[in-house]
Structures are given as C-alpha cells and as structure tokens.
Amino acid sequence: MAVSYKRIECRRVLEKVKSFSRFKCKYNIKPYQGCTFGCIYCLQSRESLQIKINAPEVLKNELKRAEPGLVCLCGHQPIERQGRIIRQILKALASRSFPVHIIAKSDIVLDDLDVIKHVAENNFCSVSLCINTLNKSISSVFEPDAPPPKVRMNAFDKMGKAGITTGLAMVPVIPFITDSDEQLEELIGIAASRKARYAIFDVLRLEDGFRSRFIGVLKRHFPEVLVKYRRLYEFGSKPESRYTRQLKVTIRRLLAKHGLKEGVPYNVSDRKSKQVNLELY
To answer: Percent helix, strand, coil in the chain (nearest 5)?
Structure first.
C-alpha cells in the first residue's frame, strides 16, 4: 500500500507523561505521527505519515526549561534515513544530559549506534527492540511491512558488542497465537543469548479503532481462535484478568530462568550530569 508523506512544523515535541509509565519515562518524543509498518494491532495509520521537520530545533528550546527525566523516544521509520530527525534529537538530548530509552521495531536504529553509544557512556541509554514472535509467517500477517523478526533480533548482536543496554519488548503478546510457553521461551531465550538484559511486555488490547480489522484478520488466518477471543474480550478492550495474571506468571518465570530483568533498568540515582558535545557525530 502506498504511503503519503506530509511535512509539518510542530509547536511541541517533549510530551510529559501524565500517568504511570511502565517504561519509567518522564517524557515521550514522537518525531513522526503515524507509522508505515502496518501492524494490525495498532491504531497508527499505515497510509500516511506526518514528519515533524522542525522537531530538533523545537526540542532544543524546550530542553532549556525542562526538568531532567528519562525520555522515551520511538519512531525509526524508513523515511528517517533521509531527514535523520531522530539522530538530531538524540544529539539535542545528549547536549542537555537527558537519559534516553529508545523503542524500535526496525534495525534502522543501528544507523544511530555511534550517537547512542556516546549517550550511554555519558548518561543512560537503553534500546528496546520490539519482537513478539520469531515466527515469520505470524509476523507477516500482523506486521506486514515491518522488518522480519530475524532482522530485528540480529540487531541485538551489534548493540551488545557496542556495550548498549538492550531489552526485548514483547508488545503486544497476542493471545492464543504468540503466547504459548514454547514460543515465549524461545523468544526470551534467544534474546538472552544475544545479550539482552531486560524485557518489557504487554498483552493485546482490542481498541475500537482497529478491533474490527483485527477480527477480520483472525477470520482469514486464524479462524480456530475466534470463539476464544469472543470470550476473552467479552467485556471490553482488555482481556479478562485471569488470563493476564497467568500470562504474567509465565513470562516472569521465563525471564528469571534466562536471567533477564523485568522493566527498563533505569534508576534516577544513577543519572549522570556530564554534558556531551556530539557535533562530530
């Protein structure tokens, strides 16, 4: 499907997180509005992408007044290789000594490895790679335009060799499709063998904006689970609590088995204050 691109100028970039964040982040930065990966379980549009072309300059001014805190940065879209907006944002954050947590579903994040390394050495920077299955057939159904799981998993190797703190983001775990003990153990085990240090996870929520589309995909590719989904999501967008509790028990057991921590390993007390000049990178 063709994607339309619209370049816009924004007034704000640094969004303060209003509620509890499982990523421990105080701020969010999204330099792109929309997404081109076409994930069936996501509200983001796959048909259009807005590019905040002035985001780095706006951010520089915002950081002069902002209190320090962990920044969650996501959005390594293919178009990033043209404008390098995220790279400029990382430099701005480093210059003001802000810690960073990057969430990526593409190996394009490796393009910024040199800057990420310097941010990590002088403050804190972790990279969470989004992989919820190693099964290419399943991934192609639910994430049709995202890089294959193997490509994303291979990014762990290069990040690890550079000394970057990396984690596995199982977001979302798809009930009855990617949640078997065997699949979860394989995914967590391989991530651990690639030097991942932690994992974050969340179960699928069937929001109204994409619920019918998601169910349509199940009808075509996984009709055998439709009855289970009707029961599991009978009362809203969240699965019934018993399922969620059991999933947490299973994942936490597997994380402990393979030596991974749960959650981003950031502590405010560990924050460094050294500012970095990254003009050469």
So the answer is: 40, 15, 40
Distances (CA, A) of 58 to 9, 13, 100, 125, 281: 9, 7, 18, 22, 20
What does 83-97 look like in DSSP terms, one character per residue?
H-HHHHHHHHHHHTT
Alpha-carbon gap, residue 206 to 245, rounded angstroms: 18
Asked if pLDDT for residue 132 goes beyond 80, the answer is: yes
What integer is the mean pLDDT of 79-87? 95
Say yes or no to pLDDT of 144 above 70: yes
Bridge partners of 29, per DSSP, are 73
pLDDT at 249 over 50: yes
User: In angstroms, rounded to a whole number, what is the distance separating the alpha carbons of residues 196 and 259?
Assistant: 9
DSSP for residue 213: H
Q: pLDDT tens for residues 27-56?
A: 999 999 999 999 999 987 677 899 999 999
Which tokens sit at 188? 């967590």
CA distance 191 to 260: 9
**DSSP conformation letters of 45-86:** -SSEEEEETTHHHHHHHHHTTPPP--EEEE---TTHHHH-HH
Give residue 193's Cα distance to chain centre: 20
Q: Which fold has domain 8-269?
A: TIM Barrel (3.20.20)
